[in-house]
Each structure stands twice: as C-alpha cells, then as structure tokens.
Amino acid sequence: MLQRHCMSRRERVWTADGEVVARLTIVADTDCMEARPCLKITGTAFGRGIDCLVWLEAVDLPLGGERWYALCPKTGRRCAVLILPPGGRQFASVKGWRIPYGSQRECEVHRAYRAIDKAQSRLKRLSKYARKPTRDRLRGRIEAKQQVVNDELARLAGMMRCGSAVAARLCSRSALARDC
Fold first, then answer.
1. Does an H or E element contain 90, and which?
2. Are 23 and 44 in contact (CB under 8 A)?
3. Alpha-carbon distances, residue 129 vs 46, 88, 134, 138, 155 (angstroms)
4. pLDDT at 167 exceeding the cut of 70
5. 3-state secondary structure (DSSP) of residue 1
6. At residue 41, does pLDDT exceed 70?
7. If DSSP codes are grouped into helix, strand and coil, which group holds residue 67?
8. Is the CB of residue 84 less than 8 Å from the CB of residue 90?
9. How far apart are CA 91 and CA 99, in angstroms?
10. Does the predicted model carry a pTM greater than 0.70?
11. pLDDT confidence bin for 7, thresholds 50/70/90
C-alpha cells in the first residue's frame, strides 16, 4: 500500500517451470526524493535489462483517503495495472501495448458457448425472489446464443453433405476445439 511522504522498496522474482524469468526491484517514491510520486523499476526480465520510471497520480476518494494510479509511459493515461510482455523493455498498460482481450481471439461459436455458460451460472445463482423479467432476460440470452451455435452446426453439416474432404477436416477441428 502506498502512503504519502514514504519510500518503499520491494524485490520480486518470477519463475516459470522452475526457471527464473524476471528479477525486479520496485521502489515506490511518494514525494521523498523526486518532485512527483513515481515507481522506479530495475532489474532483468526475459533476459533483458529493465530500467523504467513510471509516474504515479493520487486521486482523492469521496469518503476520504486516496487511490493511486500509474500513468502509462506509452499513452500517458491512468491505469491500475502495468504489464511487461515478453521482449518488452518497459512497463505499460494493456492499452499501451495494444494487447487484445482473449475473447477477441475466439471464434463466434466459442464466444457463444462462453456466454451460454455465463448466463446459465448466473441463472442458477439467482435468488428465488428474483424478478421474472430478470429470469426471462437470461433465458432469452441463452436461447439467442444457442441459436448461433445451432446455425453454425447446420452450416457445418451442410458442408459435410457436400462430401468435401476439406469440410470434414473443418468439422472435426471444430468439434475437437469445442471439447478442449
């Protein structure tokens, strides 16, 4: 936790498969040595030297206290999380590195399956006193996503009827990907 007019130092080590991937020292300086609050990050990560300075900004909370944000070195915007992808030399926000969300890499059918699972789990967790429109909305969402899955399966079945070897491979890959 960051506090005003304090300096703290943390050393972190990250490992993957028993091998050290990164060894970093993080110094949080809030109005002690620097004119503005900052994080100084030094060390090695992915076999490269890291020497990064990230400015911090405090925002007053309505009920007292403050919340600290890092200012992304690439975009200059506030962010709560900084990341360092493999091969990177400085920390930046997810938007600064332009990293897509996992769902953006999924096909439409996998997104539909994930939405169905999410809606079904929410439906199971609802209180018995939940309003009928809430339940109907979740059931409607499940039905709409199930229709997306059914349309895709019908399209693949039509390709199979054509007798195409390529279509057969596509269908088997789709079924294997869904089962994984």
1. none
2. yes
3. 53, 51, 11, 15, 40
4. no
5. coil
6. yes
7. strand
8. yes
9. 13
10. no
11. confident
- Of 15, 24, 72, 26, the closest CA to residue 49 belongs to 24
Taking CA atoms, 167 is separated from 28, 107, 170, in Å, by 57, 17, 5
Sequential DSSP letters for 4-49: TTEEEEEEEEEEETTEEEEEEEEEEEESSSSSS-EEEEEEEETTEE
Structure tokens that stand for 86 in this block: 């493999």
Give the whole-angstrom CA distance, residue 98 versus residue 112.
24
| Distances from the Cα of 31 to the Cα of 25, 57, 109, 173, angstroms | 19, 11, 51, 57
The tokens of 8 are what? 């703290």
Residue 143, class by beta-carbon neighbours within 10 Å (0-12 exposed, 13-18 middle, 19+ buried)?
exposed
What is the rounded CA–CA span in Å between residue 84 and residue 109? 31
Tokens describing residue 18: 């028993």
> What crossing angle do the helices spanning 132-161 and 108-125 adopt, rounded to 10°?
150
Q: Looking at this protein, which amino acid is placed at residue 74?
A: K
